[in-house]
Amino acid sequence: MGSSWRWQLSRSTRLVLRWCRQQKGGGGEGGRLWELWSYSKLLLRSLCYNSLADSDTLLDCVFEPVIWTVDSITRWFGVVFVCLVVLLTSSVVIIVYLFVIPTIISTYPVLLAVYHLSCGHWILLMISFHYYKAITTSPGHPPKDKLNTPSVSICKKCVTPKPPRTHHCSICNICVLKMDHHCPWLNNCVGHFNHRYFFSFCLYMTLGCIYCSFSSWDMFLDAYSAVESYNQTPPPDQSFKESTAHKCIIFLWVLTSTVAVALGGLTLWHARLINRGETSVERHINRKETKRLRERGKMFRNPHHHGKMKNWKLFFGVETRSHWLTRVLLPSCHPPDGDGIEWDCTFSRRYFLAV
Ligand SMILES: [Zn+2]
Ligand SMILES: [Zn+2]
User: Residue 245 CB: number of other CB atoms within 10 A?
Assistant: First the structure.
């Protein structure tokens, strides 16, 4: 039924066009219609014509409004997410200062209290420093005015050369050097110049949450049983401060345990990538390349993998032994190795030859 209707329609269109073609020479109504049809066809073809156009370009064009909407929402939500991180971290710090530290000072032995105070404040300092630096440090962008920039391709959006490991961020709408991903929790891209700050923030936030969760376990059990018994038979002598403290301790433990699990998983994933000398974007590309080359009987070798220990040293900028203390365990503003444009792959060549 449907196919016969379509056949009838195409037949009638052909008949109309044949009539127009016959009328063309006479300059009548049909001639003008033919002209209009020819112009429309030419216009449509000239709009669609591009020697590089393929199905991917067409899909990109079709999904462009959807991607634009998602990117705009993500950009806007970035500010909300940053406020949320600051708000939740501050709430945990306030609860610790109001209810946990007084208990530690009054009940713990001096040495244990000093240990908890030092450890807690060191983790807080590392979290605050790395979060601030991850937000405020630019991930790095390829230079637009330099003509001799080493590049592997041209960015279609920026129309500039793309150095190796550079990718375009559709949310920031710019190319990012050694792009890892766009992080809504930072409202910033994670790239060459702030990758270390991002990872250190994740690492210390996870450690801080694990530390809080473990050290407040006994207090959480006491608070939980107090709230449970209070709900059954409210004690007449319980003050507002006490009941608030119990609820805050429960909130602290639930929040830090949840974040420890969720962020712990993310940190482990990123640690695995650093171990392999890859970024999140390269993980997908390298996986595809490995599969493609395996089918041809070849082996894929990541040119940015220099061996596990060397990868970590390059990532943290560790050149001497003392750097493990001054650059990893203490706040440090040192820049990353290289400019993010040129990459030395001689390490990996030597490493793979040695293996
Ligand atoms: Zn770009
Ligand atoms: Zn971005």
Answer: 20
Q: Which ligand is nearest to the CA of 187?
A: 2
User: What separation in Å is there between the alpha carbon of 176 and the centre of ligand 1?
Assistant: 8
CA of 142 to the centre of ligand 1 (A): 9
- Estimate to the nearest angstrom the gap between the alpha carbon of 228 and the chain centroid: 41
Of the listed ligands, the closest to the CA of 140 is 2
Instruction: With a cut of 50, list the residues of the chain below it in pLDDT.
Output: 1-6, 9, 355
Please identify every residue whose CB atom is under 5 Å from ligand 2, which is an ion. Answer: 169, 171-172, 182, 189
Name the closest ligand to CA 157: 1
Interval 288-308: pLDDT, tens: 989 999 999 888 888 889 889
Q: Whole-angstrom Cα distance, residue 198 to residue 267?
A: 10
What pLDDT, on a 0 to 100 scale, did the predictor assign at position 77?
85
Chain-centre distance for alpha carbon 125: 23
Tell how far the Cα of 315 is from the centroid of ligand 1, in angstroms.
Answer: 24
Q: What is the structure's pLDDT at 86?
A: 96
Please give the DSSP secondary-structure letter assigned to residue 233: S
Q: DSSP letters of 1-45?
A: -HHHHHHHHHHHHHHHHHHHHHHHTTTSHHHHHHHHHHHHHHHHH
Boundaries of every domain in the chain: 62-353
